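Protein: DUF2316 family protein
Species: Lactococcus taiwanensis
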Amino acid sequence: MSLNPLQMQHTKKELRKNFELTGLSKSEVATDLKISEVKLEKIFNLKQRRLEDPWILRNYLLEKVEKTGQQPVPFTALAGDWHRHWFLDSNLIDQRQMSEGDN
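Structure follows.
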C-alpha cells in the first residue's frame, strides 16, 4: 500500500511533531532504534525502502511521548493496528527490527 502525496505530507508532519514532543535528540532516537541518524532522517522523510520502518518509528515515538505525560499527535495514515494490514510484517514491527543499512 502506498500513501498518496497528502498522506505522505501529513505523516511526515505527524512524525516530526511527535518527535519534538519526546524531547529526545535524533542521536538518542537513532541509538535506541539501533539505526544511523542518516536512516532516521530518511524514515522521517518517508524515503526508506521497507514499509515497516515508519511504523516502528511511529510506535517508538508514541511510547516516548506518552511516557512524558503528554498527548501524542494522532497519526492519520499510520493509524490502527498494524497486525491488520496484510502488506506489513507485524513481527518486524513488534520486535522493532528496522531494515539494515541506511535505506
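Remarks: The two ends are 18 Å apart (CA to CA).
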